[in-house]
Amino acid sequence: MGNIPKPDYAQIVKDAGIPTDSAGWRKVLKEEMEKEGSVINNDSRFSPFWRMVEQAVITCTTWLINTLLVGYIMPNMFLATAKGKYLDLLAWACRVLRKEASKAKGKILFQRAAVKGPALIIPKDTWIQTEAINGKIYRVQVLADTTMEENETTVVAQVEAEHAGAGYNLGGGYFHVLPVVISGIAAATNEDDWLIENGADEESDDDLRLRVRNQWSAVAKWHIDAAYRSLLMEKAGIQDDNIYFEHNAPRGPGTANALILLDTGNPAPEMIADLNQHIQDNGQHGHGDDLLVMPMPETEHAVSVKVWPKNSLVPEERTALAANVENFIRAAFRENSDYTATRTTPAGRFSFSLLGKELHAQFAGIESLEFGQPDIESNLTIPRLSSLTVAMQG
């Protein structure tokens, strides 16, 4: 979001010759009084009358300029700086509405305790939850009774997040705790590509303004990035900067690929199929266009870090620090959104020195740390974790 302009409206007002401080308006007031032929002799700073006039006029005027005009009216006139309901009105003018928060939907794999056995029922409303992540537990619920057939060892059940929000779009393996044991079931977990519909927070002002800006270049239906970007952002709630295009006819003339990425987690094949159907079968593509939606290709990386905690930490605090460091690093690799770590991106360089700096800022209990691998450089791929080792030292 660094390309959004941040105009200095106060300076713009000054450049237009409009005073913004008391001294400037005091001068204007005196000049206007003289133009009207009003001669005030008791205009010293000790004059109660003139001080009353100045306060009545100048205080109100500077409030109107600085608070109302500079701080409120001007920012909400323009897409780059408008907020809240005023941004909603600008978006409405472009036939764009702010997206509401939505719940994540996906699949949980249940595993039988025995090698063989009779049919089992995974009851509707069964909860599967995570360990605490930054102090919060996430839960998903089975949507319908799901039968594991006789002698089958696994079954997949569809689930929905307990609440709306992007925080539930977790990576594989996070949902694995059964708070209520199911007879005959040994384990439950979400696999890497478990998400059918990714959860979303209510669309932020910055994300909405990017969609509105994109709308100006999406008015045509020909094979242009903006049109397809707009369709994918609207249909699946994918953010503007998580859609990449492969041009140069990867499958022949008139073809292109849209590589999509989620802020956290991986899109399920069902999500990819739904998006392709939306583009290809529902009349959403231009004449002669052939656009294929695909998940962003991945590269896997084994990451290790040594952490030297401060000597003042007791064993319980050291254990908690190790867990928090692990979850923070996993957030950087797009497995959770509970920490504001700088995420891995395609076509970029992932800096472990920056990650170390962010870990120091986040956790005061870290004395020092050392990563065991160099930075990761990616082209049109997204780095993922194949393994993560956090080794506490001392």
General description of the model:
The chain has 394 residues and is an alpha+beta fold. The protein has nine helices and 16 strands. It has helices at 9-15, 22-35, 48-73, 84-92, 205-216, 225-236, 269-280, 315-332, 352-362; strands at residues 105-112, 120-122, 127-129, 139-142, 146-148, 154-161, 185-189, 195-197, 243-246, 255-260, 290-295, 298-309, 348-350, 366-371, 376-378, 382-392. The strands form five sheets. Strands 1, 3, 4, 6, 7 and 8 form a six-stranded antiparallel sheet that branches. Strand 10, helix 7 and strand 11 (290-295) form a beta-alpha-beta unit. The model has no long low-confidence stretch (mean pLDDT 88).
